[in-house]
């Protein structure tokens, strides 16, 4: 079980096991043994809703192979969408704010971040937070919803396709997110899968915006249609698939390969590659050691773009009570004592 009490984890000097998957597997086997899938997911029953939705968005993303669906505008919008919806919606909104309360902000801003997260097709805010909180509670133990110690496939994507009794109904996961569900906004998103409707509407807005841009720039129906579908394919479908896999890679790769700054009770790792594609979420061992910290990078060479954005929000007054890593406070205290000496 993870240390959730606030007691500092023991720092270690680079327990590096990067690029040694066999050694990592042997170590995990000796420490915990091979994990079975969570008991709440047994017997295995596929959740047709998630299988259909994820299969569909992956198939639609393949339209990008056809050059007719390509435009430079669509590509730029897709890349910008990774920062807007993934970093702002998932990293800052779903994860560092709603799950771990690494900072506080006005409700209107919190709800805005949550809606951006909804537009990544990563589930409703309450269900996402509940799953992630259980992951921290039982990280790399059998109840963990997506430990790669079951298998890499399970930790990356397999767990999503299987019905888990802890999360198939709001009444089953309500105990993990009572703080969120007291807010009528999050409760409404759960009812009748309203969050999924929000994703559908945001996709239509991209299509409409592209159509308007195409009509303005070409003045033809064909140009407007082509631009509309390029924004839909690249700005929504391709971006969604990229963000899904970059998030899932944190669950899988960052629990198998990388280095450790802290001796945690799980297999979390800091991974440079995952950090690059997830804008700071790859410092996963740091995060498991200090879950409420709004910064996942703890040392000067651990670049965390998401933290810089939160820091910007703090500077303009949108973020308050921002939690920083304990090692920063210890360093500041030490520097102060040195100056006093």
Order of helices and strands: EHHHHHHHHHHHEHHHH
Largest sheet: 2 strands, antiparallel
Number of domains: 1
Portion of residues within helices: 55-70%
Instruction: Describe the global form.
Output: globular
Number of strands: 2
Rounded to the nearest angstrom, the radius of gyration is 21 Å
Terminal CA distance reads: 41 Å
How would you state the average pLDDT, rounded? 89
Structure class: mainly alpha
Q: Enumerate how many helices there are, as a single number.
A: 15
Range of strand content: under 5%
| Unreliable parts | 1-32, 333-341
Q: Strand order of the main beta sheet, please?
A: 1-2
Task: Produce the secondary structure layout.
Layout: E1 10-11, H1 21-31, H2 48-61, H3 72-99, H4 107-118, H5 125-137, H6 152-161, H7 170-173, H8 178-181, H9 184-190, H10 194-218, H11 221-252, E2 262-263, H12 272-278, H13 284-289, H14 305-315, H15 326-340
Antiparallel strand pairs: 1-2
Helix pairs in contact: 2-11, 3-4, 3-5, 3-11, 6-11, 10-11
Describe it for me?
- The protein has 341 residues and is an all-alpha fold.
- It has one domain.
- Helix content is 58%, strand content 1%.
- It has 15 helices and two strands.
- It has helices at 21-31, 48-61, 72-99, 107-118, 125-137, 152-161, 170-173, 178-181, 184-190, 194-218, 221-252, 272-278, 284-289, 305-315, 326-340, and strands at 10-11, 262-263.
- A two-stranded antiparallel sheet has the order 1-2.
- Residues 1-32 and 333-341 have low confidence and may be disordered.
């Amino acid at each position: 079980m993870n240390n959730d009490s606030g007691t500092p984890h023991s720092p270690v000097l680079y327990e590096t096991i990067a690029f040694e998957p066999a050694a990592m597997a042997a170590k995990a086997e000796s420490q915990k043994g091979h994990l079975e899938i969570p008991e709440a997911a047994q017997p295995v029953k596929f959740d047709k809703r998630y299988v259909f939705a994820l299969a569909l968005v992956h198939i639609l993303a393949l339209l990008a192979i056809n050059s007719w669906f390509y435009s430079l505008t669509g590509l730029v919008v897709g890349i910008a969408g990774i920062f807007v919806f993934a970093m702002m919606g998932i990293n800052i909104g779903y994860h560092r704010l709603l799950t771990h309360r690494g900072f506080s902000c006005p409700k209107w801003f919190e709800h805005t971040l949550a809606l951006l997260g909804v537009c990544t097709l990563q589930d409703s805010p309450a269900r996402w937070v509940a799953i992630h909180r259980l992951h921290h509670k039982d990280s790399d133990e059998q109840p963990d919803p997506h430990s790669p110690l079951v298998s890499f496939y399970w930790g990356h994507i397999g767990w999503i396709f299987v019905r888990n009794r802890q999360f198939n109904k709001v009444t089953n996961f309500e105990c993990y997110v009572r703080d969120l569900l007291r807010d009528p906004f999050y409760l409404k998103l759960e009812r009748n899968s309203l969050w999924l409707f929000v994703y559908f509407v945001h996709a239509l807005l991209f299509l409409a915006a592209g159509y308007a841009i195409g009509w303005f720039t070409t003045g033809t129906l064909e140009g407007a249609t082509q631009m509309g579908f390029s924004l839909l394919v690249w700005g929504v479908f391709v971006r969604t698939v990229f963000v899904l896999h970059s998030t899932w890679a944190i669950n899988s790769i960052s629990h198998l390969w990388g280095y450790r700054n802290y001796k945690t009770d799980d297999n979390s790792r800091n991974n440079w590659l995952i950090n690059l594609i997830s804008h700071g979420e790859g410092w996963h061992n740091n995060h498991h050691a200090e879950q409420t910290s709004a910064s996942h990078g703890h040392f000067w060479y651990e670049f965390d773009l998401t933290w810089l954005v939160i820091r910007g929000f703090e500077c303009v007054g949108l973020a308050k009570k921002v939690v920083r890593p304990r090692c920063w406070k210890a360093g500041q205290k030490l520097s102060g004592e040195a100056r006093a000496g």
